[in-house]
Amino acid sequence: MDARSPAKVVKDAVESAAEKVTDALTPEVPGKPGSAPPTVAEPTTPQDPLPPKPEQGSPQTRTPTGARTGAPTTANGQQGAYLTTAQGARLRDTDHSLKAGPRGPTLLQDHHLREKITHFDHERIPERVVHARGAGAHGVFTAYGAAEAVTRAGFLRKGRATDVFVRFSTVLGSRGSADTVRDTRGFATKFYTDEGTFDLVGNNMPVFFIQDAIKFPDIIHAGKPHPDREIPQAQSAHDAFWDFVSLHTEAQHHTLWNMSDRGIPRSYRTMEGFGVHTFRLVNEAGETVLAKFHWKPKLGVHSLVWEEAQMLAGIDPDFHRRDLYDAIEAGAFPEWELGLQVFPDTPEETFAGIDLLDPTKIVPEELAPVQLVGSLTLNRTPTNFFAETEQVAFHVGHLPPGIDVTNDPLLQGRLFSYVDTQLTRLGGPNFAQIPINRPHAAVNDMLRDGFHQHAVHAGVAPYRPNSLDGGNPFPAGDAENAFLDVPVRVAEAPKIRANPVSFDDHFSQARLFWLSMSPVEREHIIRAYTFELGKCYHQEIKERQLQCLANVDPVLCAQVAAGLGLPAPQPTVPLADVTPSPVLSQVGRQWPADGRMVGIVVDPEADFDTVRDVRRAVFAADMVPLLIAPHGGLIGDLPAQRSFATGRSVELDALLIATAPAPAPDALPARDAKAGAAPATGPADPRVLLMVEECWRHAKAIGAWGPGVSVLEQAGVAGTPGVVTGDSGEDVFTGVHRLMADHRVWERFPASVG
Ligand code: HDE
After folding, report:
1. How far is the CA of 186 from the centre of ligand 1 (A)?
2. With bands split at pLDDT 50, 70 and 90, how would you rate the model's confidence at 18?
3. Residue 633 zone, left/alpha/beta (φ > 0; ψ -120 to 50; rest)
4. 410 CB less than 6 Å from ligand 1?
5. What angle do the packed helices 519-534 and 554-564 form, to 10 degrees?
6. Which residues participate in catalysis according to the annotation?
7. 380 in ligand 1 pocket by Cβ < 6 Å?
8. Do the Cβ atoms of 432 and 439 come closer than 8 Å?
9. Residue-wise pLDDT tens digits, 578-590
10. By the 8 A CB rule, do 256 and 552 touch?
């Protein structure tokens, strides 16, 4: 008889299974929580806090006034082995409140109870009014030197490496909303330059809904859930949004981008970024140019398809943040290049007839090429979401010498809004002293006191001029690299509430975007409008938006009208004669597939030598293999990351079938909640068939070898485009990998619009 206690038997059994799994886990699939595996029994021997996971980083340890402290970044985290109060007194018990006897009332004197509960009561801060849902990462920006001629900004000098923190976000949804909704994405970058922090607070679309900041509350109120029922969450498919944008027609260009595949990115890693506004750059000689900022992803621009996006919102609402963190953990560091479109700084502030102060307009890259000036690599995930991602505070007015603003009326209003919002969100004016926001440049600002003051300012004279503190701080000049407000001439003009006439063109660039799309992308746009407007209750709003579409393009309008069962109106303005910008299309080029997810369906009958080789080949291609098996735990001697019950096609970029798994015992229709799964009567498990069908429908590459080929035959997809079969697992994977360079098997989407 086993002399061990029942608990010990369970513990030993679990630990030996865990050891086996660990042995089989090289390389490891990312995503494990914690930096060390937990023990089965609760640890009782006091030990210091575990280090962060290897891929995690945190803000450099700087003082509130920007000095390097030299302390390790863990100095900002919890210290010591023992539980303490917030004042550091060690505690004996945190499980029971102090009571007058075991059955007695709780005593008011229990300062530990009150401290613990009070702090908990105040753990939440207001979420951002827009861009509430986001994910961030640390990284480094390295300059090529190509911008030296046009800006004196030191971080753009050749070879200069600058720490950065990037936060990606959706716009409309609350903090807990899904990542994959149709929306614009924020792409905000904090460069900790040694000349002061530079925030490039951009989006994944180059234009905006409105031309003047005073309309921002209007567009956001229209897009947010209706104020009475507070629905729908995180989406624009509702009457209020379309009511506003169809009346406020300058929104039509941005709306078209949202309805395009750009509104549902595959990943933050596959998004472009845009500063949107035109900025003014100034070089050493004091010469100026106008410029637009661009981020170009190394992996290309790729999107989900709408059904995938909708399914993911339920199956994995954290899809984009998980993808970002997992890619960094797996070493597939997300990369972008920073680019500039540069224009002469003329008094008209136009280029090729395009008003550079109008944020609803792009300058096509064919007219003004994007010049690459540096590269961004995200290589560390945050150690603590709240401290870093939630508390990071961006501001378009955080500018280093060499970068200045223009009179774009949208940008001008933003210069007010970003500090103002942090006062409420972060509880006072000292948010720049929160570790993630601390500059990496010396700060001597004469700003004093306020809630949560972390600096211990010396001296008695926080004013200028002074003699009591020896005159410190002193104003800097050109020689000391002071920020230059470029003395732009302001034309004599009446004080009015009006826009320049050039801002009145609301449709020509929407048409340019539409005409730049490939047929399959146009199909997607038509379906997106039809879906969104189809969700509106009011016919009047649909008709009004159709009128806007008629002014963009008759085919677009007619197709959406047909889907809505409404007549297509005639345009009310002449259709603009524009030259398409092919670079706006996502289709037709090839890109690396780094960091993509490849599902491998296995069962105990699979040839595990081949599965092991294919798994290794997927890792070697900088992608992540997920074994999908009839049950969890070990399959052969490999760990299954998903079972047929937990896996779903939308997590995957490609699917490999190594075997023909018979229906697993839990594949009974009654227990199988997945809508659409075929009854478990055929030779293969219905959930595997569903996975194949969905991958096929979403135009993903599919491969199978050996008995796996019969699953494709059963699903009716064998021999169709983008389906690779063969005898060798590795060869099949090579074929699938090649297909993934196109992102999707586009032939599977027949397009009826030219
Ligand atoms: Fe923002 N925006 N915005 N915005 N914005 C905010 O600042 C605002 C605009 C953008 O990850 C807020 O800290 C106004 C354009 C991003 O923390 C707020 C106007 C672009 C983020 C604010 C705009 C952006 C914000 C909310 C019209 C693309 C998230 C919380 C003039 C170029 C930053 C906060 C992060 C956040 C105001 C328009 C990008 C309220 C008034 C155009 C990426 O201050």
Report:
1. 8
2. very low
3. left
4. yes
5. 40
6. 131, 203
7. no
8. yes
9. 999 999 999 999 9
10. yes
